[in-house]
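Practice record 12: protein with protoporphyrin IX containing FE.
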Amino acid sequence: MLLMETARDLKHPAFIPDPHTVYLRLRTEEPIHWNPSLRGWVITRYSDLSSILKNPSFSVAALQPFLGHVGIDSRRKTERVSAVLADWMVLNDPPQHGRLRKALAKYFLPQEIAGLRPMILSRVEELINGFRGRNQVDFIQAFAFPLPARVISEPFGVSPERVEDLGEWSEDLKDFVALARSSPDKYDRAKKAVEDMAAFFRETLRDHSRNPRDDFTGRLLEAGAGPEGLSEDEMVAKLVLLLFAGHETRASLLANGLSWLLRCPASMEKLRLNPSLIPGAVEEMLQYVGPAQPVTRIAAEKMRLADANVRQGDRVFLALNSAARDSSVFPEPNSFKIGRNSNRHMAFGLGIHFCLGAPLARLEAQIAFDRLLSRLSRIQLETPQPDWHDELVTRSMERLFISYDMAM
Ligand code: HEM
């Protein structure tokens, strides 16, 4: 019995280093599984995830049910955080979701994001320049963590002196949103981060009203004043969401991706010789070691899912990284293969909540890997085992030491 529970327990310490043993067992034996420690259903097969993500009977309004599970003290601390999160499109169902998303969607189309290429390239080159004079760095501190904030700061109209704050705020909010287990002060840190972020973005919006600029914040203000009519609170919530949703995930894509590439030296050499393979390799990184783990839905009505009786209000955890290893969809799912012909991964979700920032995340990672492989040689992993953060929602590492040679 104990073995059975351990083998399926997503809160067991053995789960973090190796979630795939548990997921394989669940996909095979109990693909729709009631998990007592999470107090929710865990869904692991690709086909089930795909149909639930497209099914309007599953709501994203997960904030209230989540707060129902935290103590009264913590709930008090998170009131301000909840007020901002309540305006996040990712936590709103139609029709509110459509209104919140529409005001932004056109600025995130691949053709719009392509215009950021020269800026992204400069930020990537600057960070790689910082590798000079050393032959070893913690890739997360030196590159993966600072890059997303530097890239997003320009379109947001954030001055260079405040760029570091963006990364720190998103780090402080992460433990709360990502259900980190070993972070006792996560509610206090999230509260402070959200208050600081909201004050900062309010001031940024006001500054843009006084001195109009054609950057992302300027366009958001324009959209807010248009027929979609966004309040200042909604605009602030959007800026917080975009900063947050796009920070940790992109940092993790870069770090997880490099870490797996270094475990497959032949693939890395292939990419170095043929950079046109890089976009496909980034898709494989998203699938194989993608940053997003489960996304949550709430059953809006009672229903039967296969043999399971799902009650109205039940939480449903959709394990995206389990679907990525489903052999009925991906041949040889446990091999990291940079040249898969068609990669239908769900690392960016599926359906109406499909990641708005996917074109930015893809372009940034493609440029980053292209420049890293072209400027660094003999890259070696100096952290043999990935040192994963103890959290359920994202897959991210604490440190990733690498050594390398670099021509001046
Ligand atoms: C590798 C990087 C990224 C990954 C793996 C990722 C993953 C995801 C996933 C799985 C979802 C769906 C959530 C759900 O269905 O509940 C999502 C939604 C979202 N993402 Fe991303 N994301 C990334 C980068 C970004 C970036 C760069 C931004 C913006 C700057 C962003 C903004 C959003 C937004 C706004 C949503 C909500 C969309 C909606 O509800 O309509 N993400 N992301």
